Amino acid sequence: MRINRLKLTNFRNHEATEIIPAPFLNLITGSNGAGKTNIVDAIHYLCMSRSFVASSDQYVAHHEHKYFMIDGDFEGEIRSSFKVSCSYSRGDGKKIFVNDSPLERLSDLIGMVPVVVLSPEDLKLTSDGPAERRSFLDGLISQISPKYLRDLIAYRKIRRQRNKLLQEYRGPLSELATYLEPWNNQLVEKGSSIIMKRSDVLNRFKRYLAVQYRTISEFNLEPKLEYQTITDSVESVEQVKELYRKLLEENFEKEAEREQTLIGPHRDEIVFYLGDMELRNFGSQGQHRLYSMALKMAQLFYYSDELDDLPIMILDDVFGNLDQQKTDIITETLTLHKGQIFITSANDRPFNADQFSEDNGNKWFQVQDGNVKEKS
């Protein structure tokens, strides 16, 4: 999959920007605040319907305007060519269009244009709490499995409604148990499906992680991950459902007291290890950085094997803290990916200008104050 044209209107500091990316490697350089990340974040909007930088759409529109618009022309193996647009205006909210037809649900966009983002924010994956790792895992699977995304959305809705009942009910516990039964059945059905899919994907993904960590770090320590859920061994969906129902029964009074759902995949954890060392508690800052980079590089090559269309790869400001040797290793590894790549950098130092020419399908863009020009 690749984007052949990108147009930004009132998107952060880009009032009217249009670029024609190269089919392979695209380097975007400029000083901090020039608008480099805005370009790749706009691509992320067209792939995932949201920013990977801003927490809210309302902060994205240019300060002099109340709306923004992003247009992209894509081409892939499954879809020969199609257009995706994202519009936002204060009051009307956000809308996604495919070939000028509005999508009923924003979630319908997920997986249409697979994308992987590697950024400094990825340090949170290994150093912060379980929610960061669940979010990574959900994003990883949702782009390759529409059913998983549907199950995840349904599960969250069921849990919200079940929590509301737990919070608002003021009668006998025996009656509460009866009222919870329909929600429990739905929770078990969707939750068990989510657990099975997570277990299956992680069992395959960990092999990609091991390869990429060894490549990037050049260390002999083996990266491992452990999926912690309601069961120590995920064998079959029926086994998970049976245990799920049992745990809901055993924790009924505790849930009624705390007024929230305590059992399910929303409390799962993925624990990362280097050898026998738990990374979150004992890893150095350098090990955290290399591990998080390996996770995203593993995602790239996992997608490349799982999907019919190659994903778009975005590397946003990741080379600033790396020495030249690590930079060379990563850029060399990226040459194995035959899809489209976007790299942003505050300086030119790690890159060879000879790589960027029309002859080899690469381009170098320079950004200054929201203005973009191609470097010859």
Spatial strand arrangement across the major sheet: 2-1-4-5-6-7
Q: Kindly state the number of beta strands.
A: 15
SSE-based structural type:
alpha/beta
Name of the CATH architecture of the largest domain: Up-down Bundle
What name does CATH use for the topology of the largest domain? Glutathione S-transferase Yfyf (Class Pi), Chain A, domain 2
Order of helices and strands: EEEHEEEEEHHHHEHHEEHHEHEEE
Main sheet record: 6 strands, antiparallel
Stretches with pLDDT under 50, minimum 5 residues: none
The H-level CATH homologous superfamily of the largest domain, spelled out, is RecF/RecN/SMC, N-terminal domain
Number of distinct helices: 10
